[in-house]
Amino acid sequence: MNLNTMNTELSPIIGIDLGTTNSVVATLIDGKIEVLSEDGEAILPSIVGLTLDNKLIVGQAAKNQLAAFPERTISSVKRRMGESVQLSLGDQKFSPQEISAMILRRLKQRAETRLGCEVTRAVITVPAFFDENQRQATREAGALAGLQVERIINEPTAASLVYHAGTPERKHLIVYDLGGGTFDVSIVRIEDGVVEVLSSKGDTRLGGDDFDELLAKHVAAEFSNAYTFDLLEHSSTRWRLMQACERAKCELSTASSVRISEEFIATINGESVSLDVTVGRDEYERLIASLVQRTIECVDEAIRDSGLTMSQLDELILVGGSTRTPLVQRLLREEFHREPKWSVNPDLAVALGAGTQGAMQAGHAVGPVLIDVATHTLGIEALSTDSYDSNPKLVYARLLVRNSPLPCRFEDIFRTVTPDQSVVEINVYQGESDELTHNTLIGTLRLEGLNASSTADGFILVRFELTLDGILKVTAIERASGIAQSLQIHNALRTNQSMTHEESQERLTNVFNQSEGFRAWVASSAADTSDGEEIEVTEFSRMDSGAETSKQPKLNQLINKAKQLRPSLVGDDAEDVDRLLEQIERAMQDEQIEFLPGLEDELDDLLFYLQ
Ligand code: AMP
Known about the structure:
Number of strands: 27
Number of helices: 14
Low-confidence stretches: 1-9, 490-497, 516-553
CATH superfamily of the largest domain: ATPase, nucleotide binding domain
Helix content: 25-40%
Mean pLDDT: 82
Largest sheet: 6 strands, mixed
Distance between the termini: 80 Å
Oligomer: single chain
Bound molecules: adenosine monophosphate
């Protein structure tokens, strides 16, 4: 026991909400779960980028460069977790786990700075509807970031941990979680300090990003009516449009209409054209209605699966940024006759729950005990015995049924197809369909050397064990001989198809070291003033006052020259100068110093031509 206490003192377990759009970290500080901020920002955009000189940037800086350099920036990587793909970032390629690891590592650093000690353990949340592969990929991302993932918990479950945690009476909640990329709903029972998930349903490809996409399609269609130019087809205009639409969507949560206007968004037939479209809330709601309706159907299904009736459900809790959408709240209110409520802050609730679970696992009694459920049915491919002789048919033999409380273990006995069979290949599937092929193949286990014993009878026991994290272990045993084989499901078999875990980790460390060098360079450049006074990075924007930094004397001179020349300019020349000055100012304000050399050259050329 003493050892345990010492461990917890030495090694905190942080909670991470690794979101599609934003990520947040929380942990126990002075007996309370606290969200950790950096420069006053609790939310880290889940975006990763490489600057033009291949330095890694994570969070707001990467978000800032998304529209200008989409090919050097990756957003919404969570939607690709569990896929065996390589994503391009500049001229390098990374797996979804590696990109997620970059975000996790940034949050780990944030926690280390705040706590003043090394952090090596974490609880990470995932959408309830993430499958085995996606969970395994998340675990792998944690390991790559130098974090031992103590537990993976479902996002709506995490949110419910902070809600009503201390309530003595029994309550049943609908936890409706609509984020940037995913949707989840859980029916949860809270009683005597225990949070029990009764059922879960969701869609890992439905979220606020899809609302943005629909709005962007609508706006792009209006624009192309006027200019026969598809803003979504060109990467330079696509990202500007997408960001403008995300901002407009958020505004439509409080305004009845919104004007989407982007100056000089495209050059068509040599002419700079601006975007200016107004969208009403009614119009926007018509665009997204069918998506919101899909979430309502999921809620219906989750309630049915929980075995509860509507009258037994006490509250409807909202989690995730997209629940700010008025249509979401209205449809939920109409359909379920409950006033939807936000659990704490919808952006921070999941991280606070993860932090609570982390503290609990480290031995601090700060929250309720969690009982979660399996979110998918799991089974194997088998030959139906009914049709064995005449017309053999492959069927889905379910072993573990959805919504079983975790951890759980189920087993069943099968028989080899032929009496002298020496090998069986067990294909493991996940899904709810009776039709085998409509489900997802998640792994294959091979049992060899069978039938060698004299007592062999062809009986094979197949056992499924699902951990608290929802990670599946499949074991097959030949009954007569005891020959056994196990498989832990991770199709995310390796982080990068051509690399081992260690190689991948080393590569990421190099990428990070480069970025740390970059940060040091930024800081030293900013501090490099003639009087030696230390100034912040944003001081680069003080150029018009004549306070030059030693790194940009030429750019300062050009800016001053452009400003002197500006009153004498008209038409395109005036517009070009204004545009460039604005871009330079924005790059400085947003600390995107990597854009400055290109802008400097452009301004130099323009002034040469104008003079
Ligand atoms: P989360 O994954 O919980 O951080 O949610 C992020 C999603 O919430 C993104 O798609 C945001 O655009 C969306 N979001 C944030 N604020 C609002 C708002 N005021 N109205 C509608 N959607 C929002």
